[in-house]
Amino acid sequence: MARRHRITIPLEPCHFSPTQFQAASVLRFGMMGLAATIRQQVIAWPVLKKEHHRTVVISSVKIDYLQPFGFFSASEISLDSGLIARRSGKFLALDCRVHTPESDVVRLAMLTRPVRLSGSDVFDAAPADLDEPWLGRFAPDERDDSPMVRTLPARIEEITSQGTLVGDGKSSFFVSRTDCEFADQWQNVRLPDWFAAGREQLILRQPDQILTTGLREPMTCFMAEFRRPMYFGDEGALRTRVYQHGKTLAFVHELFVKRPSISEADSPMCATGIEEFSIGNEERA
Amino acid sequence: MKVVFSGTLLRFVNYSKEVDLEAANLHECIGQLSTQFPSLKPVLLTGDGHVRDTHQLFLNGEQLASQERTNAELPLQGNDTLLILTAIAGG
Prior knowledge:
The complex is a heterodimer of chains A (285) and B (91). In chain A, 22% of the residues lie in helices and 38% in strands. Chain A is of the alpha+beta class and 285 residues long. In chain A, strands 1, 2, 3, 4, 5, 6, 7, 8, 9, 10, 11 and 12 form a twelve-stranded mixed sheet that branches. In chain A, a hairpin with a 7-residue loop joins β5 and β6. Chain A is globular and about 55 Å long. The model of chain A has no long low-confidence stretch (mean pLDDT 94). With 91 residues, chain B is of the alpha+beta class. Chain B has one domain: Beta-grasp domain (Ubiquitin-like (UB roll), Roll). Chain B is 26% helix and 22% strand. Chain B has four helices and five strands. Chain B has a five-stranded mixed sheet with strand order 2-1-5-3-4. Chain B starts with a strand and ends in a 5-residue tail after the last strand. The model of chain B has no long low-confidence stretch (mean pLDDT 91). The chains are: A alpha+beta (285), B alpha+beta (91).
């Protein structure tokens, strides 16, 4: 049976917005689950990195909020995580359930890409499939070579082609060392905060009934793909377009890094994603 | 010419995001950087003196192909900007 790792996390106010678990909190839980399952199924992450020059970087994440849950809903939650090797070690897929004794609250899916480190002090790396003996540490039911489907591009296409554009905006930010991990590369867990800041600035500039759904209501789904990393000292630009698609309000984000001698139009995209909210809940309240 | 560094390399160049220097070609440019910042050399270059594949080079906004980045005689001019960027860091 595929192994799962379970821990209990006491809840504190910083995990939450007024409406729900912050997406960044859920991603941090996911990173805890990733570290725990790598240790359980492969080897302790620091050892994997320092002695074997292997690690993983995050390719994509999807968070599904399954039910209303706020700071006063419980004093602790359980995190149940499992790690699967996909496509013969090309990817490692993490599945996390955030739950109470009664029910699941949030589901997180995180896809990671194994990389090989050069061994230099800058921790530079290149993609490298997880091969033996590491792959052999995954039990048969922890390996899945079936085809994979990227869900985010299809969802963006559906929303932007079928939905109605109801707002757009741009914002910028600076990548501080506090936004980075020990190699001065961005922490993936910061992405939801940059998306949220772009959404909130856009809404506060135009606080109409539809757009403010993105502040009044809890998010129902968060999806993101990471294209290339940003680093300490980089300046980022976020473009956000808002679509109404049936009863869904979707904030579609594209995050770029500003580079000297590269025009804004040609700035490399570092990440893209969607935050989705349900419209009309207040009418039922 | 101007050499621009990204985040992972900043601590090896005394946190100078931009460095001005005079170099007629890529070999001279890399040599001057190695002299000016000795701790940069082992993280930027392979044993045979080429820029590691894990770092990308952009000359005036255009990424250098593998033949160009290994061409020591690649000409550089005074108004050129060379961006040195780590593609992925496994931190």
